[in-house]
Write a structure and sequence with these properties.
This protein is an all-beta fold and about 120 residues long. About 0% of the residues lie in helices and about 45% in strands.
């Protein structure tokens, strides 16, 4: 059974940083792109960042560029999201996702496996 387990969410003040981790189990995703999405209350799920299988290519939503960094460690079957200079607008549930096959996408429907998502809360 494939599982994506995120950690690292929580409460941070405006301007602060958080690092999210997503550990995969049940299969290896070392040949798959991985992605992060977020969903705020009452809003649709939106793309945040994605990374190719070897980390050579990364993709960011405009809102994440310059603030967030996605990375991965295939030996640990883990992908990370470093979030810096957070503002109130970044508060949401952040979801790790993996596609069923090789490739990388910025579109949620291309992903089959999803984590539960840690809550990121930003306080003023």
């Amino acid at each position: 059974q494939v599982q994506l387990v995120e950690s690292g969410g929580g409460l941070v003040q405006v301007g602060g940083s958080l690092r999210l981790s997503c550990a995969a189990s049940g299969r290896t995703f070392s040949r798959n792109g991985m992605g992060w999405f977020r969903q705020a209350p009452g809003k649709e799920r939106e793309f945040v960042a994605a990374i190719s299988w070897n980390g050579g290519n990364t993709y960011y939503a405009d809102s994440a560029k310059g603030r967030f960094t996605i990375s991965r460690d295939n030996a640990k079957n883990t992908v990370y999201l470093q979030m810096n200079r957070l503002t109130l607008a970044y508060a949401a549930v952040y979801l790790c996702a993996a596609p069923p096959s090789a490739g990388v996408s910025t579109t949620a429907r291309q992903y089959t496996y999803w984590g539960q998502g840690p809550q990121v809360t930003v306080s003023s």
